User: Fold these one by one.
Assistant:
Number 1:
Amino acid sequence: MAMWNASKGFQNSTGQDVNPDLDSERKTASFSVERLTNILDGGAKNTQIRRKVDAVLQSDPEFSRENKYFQSQNERYEGAVRRSLYLSKKIEELGWVTDGLEQKYCYRALGDDLAFSVHQVFMKSILGLGTDEQIAKWIPLAEKHYIAGTYAQTELGHGTYLRGLETMATFDTTTQEFILNTPKISAMKWWPGDLGRTATHAVVFAQLYLKGKCYGIHPFIVQIRSLHNHSPAPGVTVGDIGPKMDFAQTDNGFLLLKNVCVPKENMLARFSQVLPDGQYIKRGTDKINYLTMVVIRVAIIRSEVLTTLMKACTIAVRYAVVRRQSELKPGDPESKILDYQTQQQKLLPQLATAYAFHFGCDYLQEIFDQGYAETKQGKFDLLPELHALASGFKVIATEFSSAGVEICRKACGGHGYSLLSGLPSLYTKLVASCTYEGENTVLLLQTARFLIKCFGMAKVGQPLPSSVAYLSSTRFGKCGAQEKRDFLNPDIYTETYKQRAFRMVEDAAVKLQTLIQSGTAQHEAWNVCSVQLARAAAAHSHYIIVQTFVKALERFEKELQIQRILKHLCDLFALHGIFSNMGDFLQAGHLSGKQSNMVTESYLDLLAIIRPDAVPLVDAFDFSDGNLNSAIGSYDGHAYERLFEWAKKSPTNKQDNQTFEKYLKPLFQNALSKL
Amino acid sequence: MAMWNASKGFQNSTGQDVNPDLDSERKTASFSVERLTNILDGGAKNTQIRRKVDAVLQSDPEFSRENKYFQSQNERYEGAVRRSLYLSKKIEELGWVTDGLEQKYCYRALGDDLAFSVHQVFMKSILGLGTDEQIAKWIPLAEKHYIAGTYAQTELGHGTYLRGLETMATFDTTTQEFILNTPKISAMKWWPGDLGRTATHAVVFAQLYLKGKCYGIHPFIVQIRSLHNHSPAPGVTVGDIGPKMDFAQTDNGFLLLKNVCVPKENMLARFSQVLPDGQYIKRGTDKINYLTMVVIRVAIIRSEVLTTLMKACTIAVRYAVVRRQSELKPGDPESKILDYQTQQQKLLPQLATAYAFHFGCDYLQEIFDQGYAETKQGKFDLLPELHALASGFKVIATEFSSAGVEICRKACGGHGYSLLSGLPSLYTKLVASCTYEGENTVLLLQTARFLIKCFGMAKVGQPLPSSVAYLSSTRFGKCGAQEKRDFLNPDIYTETYKQRAFRMVEDAAVKLQTLIQSGTAQHEAWNVCSVQLARAAAAHSHYIIVQTFVKALERFEKELQIQRILKHLCDLFALHGIFSNMGDFLQAGHLSGKQSNMVTESYLDLLAIIRPDAVPLVDAFDFSDGNLNSAIGSYDGHAYERLFEWAKKSPTNKQDNQTFEKYLKPLFQNALSKL
């Protein structure tokens, strides 16, 4: 478009041509953006490595995401496979080691444009569940992509409840083989990524039958496609499950087994073994393995969930200072929409949430590392607590983040509805995390079970694990806040969250107990308390995150500007949480109605206080424009110019307009004589 | 798949093969499903017409939606144009009259598979804003699709705030033409449907300049493409804005005008006229026209928003009785997921919401018809109230419904993430309604402005319009509920909602007043109160809907079974609203903490009471399988069989696997010698 040059002839200090409405926001930062970036990266050296990786990837046209929003499911899939294999080679060439930071940053930058994510799980499951011989046989092949694997657990009719899986593996002592079958349609494997069009092998989870007796779920390596020509192996029906809300690049698949024979040595046998005569031998415990999975869950929160929320905040905040709408003051030019309180109220709490979960991840990583060390030494005491923490954390991280991304998207109005903004795909991808890796309601109820157990232990004077020690408290008093600024005292609000969690756990426990004592069957009582139990578990997890953010502030005592802004965000996260769940806090009378008004006022005041730092706070996430892939969220703030440039590239503007020729032209001709 | 026959050899009373888990749900209905369907349709005769229309459409392969979820943006667009033109012909052949019920039901059945929706708005704007001559010239052409129109109002940089539009129309007295220009990139028309690839003409809104003076926004008919070959008219740049979160069938477009000349008679001149010498003449008032738009808004709520929520409820409730997961009672078979309280809590309130808004639409329609009659007679007194009602209603209808659809989708777990479930597109389509037809936050603040004005009038003893008469109350007492069943008394909970709305309006008004009295500028005071003002407006609208549902129950005094189930839904809608916004209700002390526990218990009890009627309640919406287009929500409940059948049809299972040949085969060959 020659009519306007995207460049406005305005250059910022680094020589970039930046929209003045965005540039001015960067001049008033109250803290060092670079320092905050380093903190988020875990040190200046990491920032350096990350930027190096980003630069390498962005200078390589193979990793361009330019056409992503225009591609079909098929193109996305093919691109992801090609790119992943190319990346593997590149990583090898550059000498970036497995599990090193460079690789981690590659995935941060390219995440949803890569394939083989479940191939990784295939390998991890062999490493965790296989014997040394099995590892030696399969891992080198998988590492080089000489085979492609998948992890086939979920079935069409069975998700979270693993015991309900129906796929059968029957051992035949005469042939020394397992015979795998899908006995019913509901038993078909369904959803595994990389299964639909790629995998040659699968770790299949099936009920093990020995001499007619069921020994429960076991893992088997099953070849499902020919390495020669990729045709399904005998007895195998396999394919792609079709279009989804997102993840077009992933070939989620179905798998149906009819008398598929697998040699005896293909059962992953680290923890259990079948002898030639069909005898079953159990050995060791797979608890350490279980913990590995929990640790992975936390890592996913950081790399997938949190990163996505941070991207959405970056796009929405930058857009909100270049978008102008209506007059705030009559007669003035139209205002930046971020100057409206209603817009601040949408975006700034999401920003605070992103920071809160960042420090939450740090904390969880720490105690998981500790738990892992203990578990390795055979001490399993910490496991239930770690499981409860990880489950609750996963739930609130995914719920808050996906809701937050959608709030950011909607706050960009119509342009947030265009795929070119980058926002719709952030939501449609992220919201899947509320379902995968443990459905959120199921996970909350698992955390609740732990809390109820601990509450019972406390009643009889038993000691409690540290994260739930507060359940031993006898009673809490009233909140001592006298005026609104008292709610900027972390002791005050942390106590308030603690009180809320305690009260909700106690209420659920008492109701449960009362029902059981009055003769209701235990399972029935649990069911009719489950809404309250789930809410109690969420309140507990919310409290832990607030507490963790407050503790994290101590680390910055010598960096006053950084500490100041993080303290504001911590306050905002905490007060927004009270404001949004006020009923929970008022119900038991810990807060009074008057105090709830103070919370509201203090919360709203914070919006105006943080507003001037909003752009520096998202700049600190340090996403490159390539990372964001957003027409409206780029660093230079030229939202409208970019939307127009990108829209013109849409295939809908290039395709022959068959529709006109076929359907419209014959009609329009009738108007020619009349106009 | 020959392995299992989709038929289980089980037939219901009508001879259909139905999943027994779904069939059994239908045998225990506490009311006549057919009667409730008739009520929802507005009479048995309407039901009959609707079913006739559905049958006609479904017997015609042109209207098959079978491949919808597999199609590209281009295919969706082409299909929609073809189908719309075909439908027009069919409607003519069948003699279905304009604005008749048959046509309405066509759109209900085919809604998002049709094109030309903004072409309709193009016609309505000419009918509303044009002179008789203009109507006589353009409408016949548009009706026959001899021209295709669009309504070009929104600009790249301007949405809700119409006064900010930048497109210019300058009158040239020498040529007697208007010269239209897009002065800046932000002034480019952006978003209009049917503009991207279809329209030949547009009603363009532009600032009218006469002799250098701006007279504000006026509408002009502009030809934008050749009727011969569809190429852009001189000075016009036009195209498609590219992919969106949904609405692939619609060619939303951009339009850029450079010295585009339009004859003088193309300014729509019903309410203002330009004389040959450039004199400006205003005549009459366009208020009646404005009301027409408000009425359309209400109609859209019913046909688009509510229908979508009802579809999502139907799919999710049916799926929840055929999906079994985990043991509710140890040792029992896996339970239907709808038997879990946590699942009931997700789905049943959405069902209640659908019924609440159904009766809400009835009520609004009624008072709008009345307002329309008065306005036609030149009485405009009702307008501000009607606008406030419609705005608030639009906001809560779209917010509750889009949130509700997404809750339904997530409640279907992984399968809800598959496009084949039908749920993702219900959400991605519906959520757009929070932004279009007035952005929700902006609308809430308009309603708030009316409420604040009325609150002020009440203070000085002036009479108030009926829907806000409660703002004249001096003070409310405490809630009188003594036990949980008291909260099943509509008088009690309606009063509670009223009290909440009053208190929130009062709080915002007092804060606003205090700020202004202490010297804060009015616009600044408004801004720092805006979060609370928006919430107060939502609380007001919520109260109106509860009140309306309660009133609607009176109509069924002679049909006890129907009244009983509707009363349960009304109670559930009301109590779920209190439960979910408990802070608002507790804050001012109208409810006590103890009473809030009663609400919770009463709310949870209702879930179990309504549970047995859940399937009959969604059956009453009476969507055909073709309407729903869901693999997991069909009437026969064969969710897994249909998912599998549909998945096999995915193009990803038919395309040549180039990816294997090109990228994988060379790698896999290396494993051949090793396995």
Number 2:
Amino acid sequence: MGAEGQLKATLKEISEPVKAEFDALERHFKDYLRTDVPVIDSIFQHLLDGGGKRFRPLLVLLVATCKKNASPEDINRLAVAVEFIHTATLLHDDVVDQSDVRRGNRVAHHIWGAEPSVLAGDYLYSRAFSILVEIGNLGILQAISTATTSMARGEVLQLLRSYSTATTVEEYVEVITGKTASLIAGSCRAAGYLANFDDDVLKALEHYGLNLGLSFQIVDDLLDYTAERGVFGKTAGKDFLEGKVTLPVILLLETLGSGSRRKVADIFLKETPDPDDFEKVREMMNQEGVFDKIREIAKQYSDTASAALAISPESDSRTSLEAMAQYVVYRRT
Amino acid sequence: MGAEGQLKATLKEISEPVKAEFDALERHFKDYLRTDVPVIDSIFQHLLDGGGKRFRPLLVLLVATCKKNASPEDINRLAVAVEFIHTATLLHDDVVDQSDVRRGNRVAHHIWGAEPSVLAGDYLYSRAFSILVEIGNLGILQAISTATTSMARGEVLQLLRSYSTATTVEEYVEVITGKTASLIAGSCRAAGYLANFDDDVLKALEHYGLNLGLSFQIVDDLLDYTAERGVFGKTAGKDFLEGKVTLPVILLLETLGSGSRRKVADIFLKETPDPDDFEKVREMMNQEGVFDKIREIAKQYSDTASAALAISPESDSRTSLEAMAQYVVYRRT
């Protein structure tokens, strides 16, 4: 891939250097989850079939293959563990939504309500740590447990700041550092241990992951306002309806005069916002150039991520990691 | 403590050999939770002030002091970590109840609904693993991560078997092994690593914890039917109302003829059971001698637990562990 190729690379092209390992992951997910209870297996099968980009495991594979001495089994373990942790977080994030929707009779609430999501998340999370312990590397355990603590902290912060239209860009970055970038940073650092990199490269890989993760989440939050219906994985407007104060809202409020700012804040704080409110806000963001500004901010984080890789040896995997940094900025889904 | 003293020992007497360390734990809980976000600290302070018996940390202290060579700091770390994991489980267990109670306006649901319990639990759980990683002993990490996986499995099984009046004693024991006994077994084994015990003693300590944990949970489930209002930590009848098929229900159904059995099962499956239903079932259990039978079963598990300790060296701590096995059978709260 040349510089131009990197900008336009698809996830498929990016995963090329680790194609066989990446394709085999779906099987490993299943193997590492298998229990002695068929009904638990079928619950998890359903979760795993839901798919996802497998973004974190792909990073693990690419980082760990930047040098050629990592144990393939340990790479799989780490790739599986970080995806399980990510899936657990998604399940726990869904809890409030689910408990809103699934009201009704008492028994059904037990079977399909909030609790199964919480417990399935706990199970995935516990399995992830068991698998990490099997690798037997304390550096990896430290990288991932630090990341998960930071994630939980970020999620709590995000919740505390729901509906707070006074949230600053700095506070926003603090939240997404925790809830998204920390696990990506920890995954890259942990994979670096598998490749047996020196401490300075480990730090660089963590720095890469941190900035890549910030860029990734900033674009995710952007897509929540710009995505066409049906293209983006989640419904556009979800953050808005849940009162999450993300970068598009913060930058819009910053650019507006105090009168308009008050009006937007009021819409945002309405008890029952409707799709028209969302469209109105989205149109204002577009007019104020908020979307372009955000893409530019994401690009800066991605460039910082790429630059951090210079210290690691050249390889196809490293080229893919650089391409990944650009991919997250320009992706549409 | 003589044999008679052991039977009647209070938790205070049992904790005597590790009194100073046990008293200092409340401070350690606080120190290990402290974050840079005051509002998170105050949430956790509230949780910790809720108290609890600190049963698992006390076991850690007693096992780890059966020999005199464990690092005091590592003992504290393990004691704190297992209590954090236990607290996280309680928080996640509460989720369904909370989401029932806390309905209402959209913002309040975000702040006081299911989500904070889930996230606070995740935070405690993550911190626990970080603290365990600080100890730097892979045996301990394996013991605890195996336990937490088993816990999550037990919780899922319990949920799947809600309202299933066909649940057998064996299936019940499988559930409580996971949800309660596994963490107690893992805590004892992990503390054994700190004391630098040989593998055969580690196994014996795990066996002690497993049987102690079963006895503990069996009595917990008994107290849910027998406790006087205000004495037991939780309201009597909670399991019944939640459709949890525990040992009192299973043994009652076993002893009844098919006609009465059908009637009890129908009460248990009612959409909205009332306190009278609970009193009716409780009275039948009393008449059929179910409560005495259960106390006897718990006693057998506790005796098995005590016997497992014979392999470890005599010490005040070991005597307390034996007394603990009896305490869990005869406790009223």
